[in-house]
Amino acid sequence: MKIAMIGTGYVGLVSGACFADLGNTVWCVDKDKEKIDMLNNNIVPIYEPGLNELVKKNFLFNRLKFTSDLNIAVKNSDIIFICVGTPLSKKNKSADLQYVFKAATEISKSINKFKIIVTKSTVPVGTGDKIEKIILGRKKKKLFEVLSNPEFLREGEAIRDFRFPDRVVIGSNNKKVTKKLETLYEPLIKKGAIFFSTNRKGAEMIKYASNAFLATKISYINEIGNLCEKTGVNVEDVSIGMGLDKRIGGRFLRVGPAYGGSCFPKDTKAITVTGDLYRTNLSIIKSVIKSNEKRKRILTERIKVILSNKVKGKKIAILGVTFKPNTDDMRQSSSLLMIPYLQKKGANIKYYDPSGEKNNFSKLKNVTFCKNINEACKNVDLIVIHTEWDEFKSIDFKRLSRGKKFKIYDMRNLYSSEKMKKLGISYYSIGR
Ligand code: UGA
After folding, report:
1. What is residue 88's DSSP assignment?
2. What is the pTM assigned to this prediction?
3. Which of 119, 121, 264 to mutate for ligand 1's pocket (most ligand atoms within 8 Å of CB)?
4. What are phi and psi of 431, to 5 degrees?
């Protein structure tokens, strides 16, 4: 099939490259010419395992094309995916839809024959209706159909998630067009993905309800973890014991720092705004947002307690600063609160992240980026494991210490408390 992806950010680029890999011809469009030049030179502007190879391969086969000319891409495609960003608007904390509406206006100018227009961007319920209205301003109804196809990719796992999704959700009232999308996704459905179609608003709601539910699961186990810590229970056992109940399921029950990233924090806020708009108080999601904000402070405060309230002059190594592993994304990472707080209190901080140095900390005095674990942990009083990158999972702490005593605060429970005890290391973890 001939496809256009409008917006070559995370969702557009990953999905575009994956659709091309399934044999489709895909035009990836972005108004950022610099980005398009990079992609045309086989430089992928985002960090996602496996994406470089996928882009290179499909570009070489001429199935994946990059352009800043939306008109060419739309004219040459049958299915057009809107994949532009929907950041939180500063005004009312809901999704800012200006880029979606701009894309719809631009698309409407280029429609030359029947087009299927699909929203992949995360958009509040009812946005599809607004997109349709915008396009109707220029083109007759029989020339297009607007669908919703929410995206459930996770950063760092996006290619695998695209290839092996649990489900593909399509929102449309038009059976013929829904069938066309089912055909597009057929290779994934054949491998076990469930194809679920509902109406357009239903699909829009499924995306927000899913993200808010996953955020709730995380906050729930984090709070249970707080109680486990006080009662001498191991939260890991509780997660396993709970997850064995198929009604609950074991995934997204890992304790850790506050959830971050570009999706959960943004989408939980946006859905509560929609709730308020329709006079429906989404009180559970509102309390999840509060609980997550509080969590950032709780974990940072605990560092103070571990250091016996003497942070000034202490040398601290932070391992991992991104919001999760296998991404260079710093958005809403709890390290953004933790590091400036400790620095302000007079700590000397060395940090290492496999995805490289971060501008976020470049102006902070006494905060230095190190090139590896050894450099970061040399002569420190405390090591904080903040992000669960694979290379932090089997550190030889005995060798690292070279006789110097230090404490470890493992915010991802990567190590066994018993083993650490045997090594004579003061080890603190979460919820156990
Ligand atoms: C999330 C959803 O998982 C995707 O399905 C969705 O498509 C995406 O948002 C989106 O809306 O675009 P993502 O933000 O990439 O994906 O990352 P997750 O793996 O979901 O992690 C989010 C946060 O939750 C991270 O800070 C992670 O450390 C935390 N987390 C996750 C936990 O603390 N515990 C867990 O058990 C799982």
Report:
1. B
2. 0.96
3. 264
4. 65, 30
